[in-house]
Amino acid sequence: MLNYKHLHYFRTVAKAGAINRAAEKLHLTPQTLSGQLSAFEQRLGVALFRRSGRRLELTDAGHTALTYADEIFQVGAELEDALQNRAAAPVRPFRVGIADVVPKAIAYQLLAPALTLAEPVRLVCKEDRLEALAAALSIHRLDMVLADRPLPSTMDVKGYSHPLGECGIAFLAAPAVAASAGSDFPANLHGAPLLVPGEDSALHGPLLRWLERRGLQPVVVGEFDDSALMSAFGQAGAGVFPVPLSTAGEVMRQYAVVDLGRTLEIRERFFAISVERRLSHPAVVAVSEAAHQRFQHANDD
Which GO terms describe its molecular function (predicted)? Predict the structure, then answer.
């Protein structure tokens, strides 16, 4: 049987990155903690750490073990909370995987309706690549995955992709960059510095093909997997950057950037991926219904 004290020691070391720091938190000597870790690795039959300079790095097996450890202790905290608050209404967890290419503002907009249900839920968000999230969904460790594409048919995972909606694209830039580019859209993109989503984004290919069809040749100065980081570079004047129309107003206010132009010829699409053919989880249903209304309004504006 798994030794949960050893699991706790392992998790603390993994978070701290070093035996000495973890030993201080656990009020153990480094020698004792090192011995406990060795016993845990022997029990599992795998190495969980490898040394990199003065730090300890997780092996592939260690990353897997840490994922499970986090969930085990999270469930333990839920159990403790449930027992201590038996008189209170139970709070249903809503575990959502968010593909790392989905803009953070979009993720918030899509998930916010789940927090206003009559039956309260506790939102638990996990961000990762779509492949890893789909695997977690398949073993029911997630209730839903938010993605910018349907579940790939090449993946050996049974799931259903429910369209949430789609919207056009706005091109934003810092005021100085916008002034230099001019107001003749989309010609103002020609020769302008451009920031684009990374290759994992479903928007990457369609955006570049649209520019090519239009005969536009901006100077691509950066690719970003994280849309918030791309917006920060755009705010600093590094270049023009695309955002979904549904979040354009919010991004303009937050980053003090301006609108160079908009197009419905490029569409960014979003999906809720579930193991259910027909949605039944109340929070997933709320997300789906609110999303259709939001994207309809965004495209009409």
Answer: DNA binding; DNA-binding transcription factor activity
Please write the tens of the pLDDT for every residue from 124-170.
999 988 888 988 888 888 999 999 999 887 777 788 899 998 999 99
Considering the domain architecture, whether residues 62 and 110 belong to the same structural domain is answered as no
Is 87 among the domain residues? no
Using N-to-C axis directions, what is the helix angle for 30-44 and 19-26, rounded to 10°? Answer: 100
pLDDT of residue 88: 55
CA 241 to chain centre: 19
Say if 66 falls within a structural domain: yes
Query: What is the β-pairing status of strands 219-224 and 121-128?
Result: unpaired
Residue 85 is predicted with a pLDDT of 62
Range of the domain at 266: 92-301
In a domain, 86, yes or no: no
Q: Which pLDDT band, with edges at 50, 70 and 90, does 300 fall under?
A: low
What is the spatial distance between Cα 227 and Cα 224, in angstroms, rounded to a whole number?
7
Residue type, 77: A
Element (H or E) spanning 100, and its range?
A: none
Cα–Cα distance, 79 to 85 (Å, whole number)? 10
